[in-house]
Amino acid sequence: MDLKSHADRLRSRTLKSVVEAGRTISEFDACGWNINVSRQFLDADAETALAKLASQKDLPGAVERLFTGKTVNPSEGRAALHWALRAQETEFADAERVRKSSEAAEALASDIANGRKTAANGHPFKAIVHIGIGGSDFGPRLIADAFHDSRLPDVELRYCANLDPLDLELALAGLDPAETLVVGVSKSFGTEETLYNLTRARDWVRAGVPADWAKHFVLVTANPERATAWLNGAKGLILDLPESVGGRFSIWSAGSVACSITLSSDVMKGFRRGAAEMDAHVQTAPVHENAAIQLAMLDYWNASFMGFGARALLAYSRRLRLLPAYLQQLEMESNGKSVGPAGAGVGGATTPLLWGGEGTIGQHSYHQWLHQSPSIVAAEFILAPGSRTDEAGVTGLTAHALAQAEVLANGRTLEEVQKEEPDLPAEIAAQKVHAGGRPSTFISTSELTPEKLGSLIALYEHRTYLAGVLWGLNSFDQWGVERGKTMASRLKPDGEGSKDAVTNHLIKRLQT
What we know:
Blueprint: H1 3-11, H2 15-22, E1 27-30, E2 33-39, H3 44-56, H4 59-67, H5 93-113, E3 127-131, H6 135-146, E4 156-160, H7 165-172, E5 180-185, H8 192-208, E6 217-221, H9 224-231, E7 237-240, H10 257-262, H11 265-284, H12 291-304, E8 310-316, H13 323-335, E9 353-358, H14 367-372, E10 378-383, H15 391-410, H16 414-420, H17 426-431, E11 440-444, H18 450-471, H19 479-490, H20 501-511
Parallel strand pairs: 3-4, 3-5, 5-6, 6-7, 8-9, 8-10, 10-11
Antiparallel strand pairs: 1-2, 2-11
Helix pairs in contact: 6-13, 11-18, 12-18, 13-18
């Protein structure tokens, strides 16, 4: 029986009956995370068919190709060596050069944090302004927010990503350019939004630091020639962002140097160490125990065969409140495609819409839609308390996450409503019915540490890449993003304009 036939068979049943018929709990462990997939439209026969597909698509071979530096980005003829940024050691020259780029960033961060590298006036920096966009912003912002309580007391960290002029104005408000270090991250050093904000920041710094202003800039890029030209003869600090590291996989790179400067030194060390542990798991665990392979197969199954076009990421952790935004780029920019590397359509649905937020806060807004809307959305719970200083809070957080997952799966029948609340008017009782049937994955750990965050992000990276292999996609290019940039340049006053009537009408309206 093929996968479509299994999906048709399981779709005709209730989720509760599928789970109860399975009788055993379906879960696996990796690097301190427990991943429970018991509440999915899967049974032993469907799982066997998926495992056969994993063998046909050679997912273990795909893992090996990634970690041996083979070309996995055929659009650009490159390996993807982001994993080398967190490796303790590497076996070949290209990966070793990538690894050393993160070491150089950590050495510079230590010099700045400890006052060995100072502002032009010889004093330590008191503020860092990080300027980037996309992967050059989401990753560092996630780490800094997750471990805000580990920030060094004497340095303020701010971020700027938006082309809206207000974003930089807010980032610089109240700061003294003589005490501020600007970190600019752009792999190509041609990203419009980043260069716009960097150039405005340069004007601001030079107004307050006429001499040696370049000491107030750290530029992270794969294009040092452009960065050097931007410095216009001044000697600045340039860090390498290797070509073989994609922006959305660059959280481990020198692009996170602002975090290394402003957080206690053990945070980034633990973050990379946890990722390296997950790398080892993905390389060595057999298919049936391999967290990345299992989750990639589940993503493929739910999107392409069960028809779930969206997945809600529900992070029951204060430290993970920015994780949904980070993973949106990682998954949807990587696999939000319908054509494979050979130019042929892949057929069927690929990566779903990923959205979500912070539990328990989301329970007071969009969870109503998750529970009782006619739409069925797969959910992914991540339970990872940021602190265990008050066990009552952890108990409450855990209870809410477990309860939401149970009700999404099992629902509440009219008979149950009437039995539990016999005096309800019929019309109110009908409104309290929950259809259930919403599948979910439950990922948990006892406490979120830098190591656990590192292993979790690495897991999602590998899961995304392997799901791309199943769909027949190149997860390491982003032509859809590039087209939007090209069109934007045409619509500027010195561009060629648009042939689209609606666009031209809007231009005229906006100019009045």
